[in-house]
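Protocol step 4 of 5: obtain the predicted structure for the target chain.
Materials: sequence only (see below). No template structures provided, no constraints applied. The aim of this step is simply to have a reference model before the mutagenesis design in step 5. Sequence pasted as it appears in the construct record:
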Amino acid sequence: MSDRVSLVVGGSGGIGAAISRRLASEGHSVLVGYANNNERAEALVNDLGGAPHRAVHADVTSSASLNLVAEEISSEFGRLDVLVNCGGVTTPVPHDDLDGLEDEIIDWIFKVNWRGPFAAIRSMRTLLEASSDAVVVNISSVAGVTGVGSNVAYCASKAALDSMARSLGRALGPSIRVVSVSPGWVEGEYAKSLPDEYLQAQRDAAPLGKLASGDDVAAAVSAVVHHLPMTTGTIIAVDGGRPLGT
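Step 4 output (structure tokens):
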């Protein structure tokens, strides 16, 4: 158990909620960051138990919002030990439909999926440097490696997150570690919107024969935080070996 302070941006969604629960069970004070759904974030906080937790409004498209969160954390805790960036957006566009991937979609995806995590790290840097064992975990995707995903821009945004782990792992060391945790398909809300036969094909293409769960991703985050102190600037895959498949 620990007394670490953790901010999970996008912490009330499927993967974010699993990460929030895992860190809370390990003794962290968890700040559940949300952009719009305060009720869902508050409901999650009420279920966490253990150390004091609370919901915070953290809109990754607004640096002003993130700076306010940093001020709140500074006033209450004086430091931040763990920052998890797991907010993300996408929309299906076939990869060969270049006209369908409009500028507005591209800008929206990069604004949330890449600029948002960078802005969160920028806002929280001083607080992370005040920790004796700070780590940033960005939730990436196997799409950043394979180029297979909901659209070309989504894949590119996740590749950019992986690149950021390398750049900032170098730039912010030794005081802050930066790691990408990279899931494949996750059994969750978005997967439920897809045809069963498509999801089964993804299971069949992975050597482990299954999709990840939110808890699988949370376990990887926990491993990075607690058990991999010499790991930074790299990608931890949680994909069932999907890139090895067909």
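Step 4 remarks: The chain is about 50% helix and 15% strand. The first strand starts at residue 5 and ends at 9.
Proceed to step 5.
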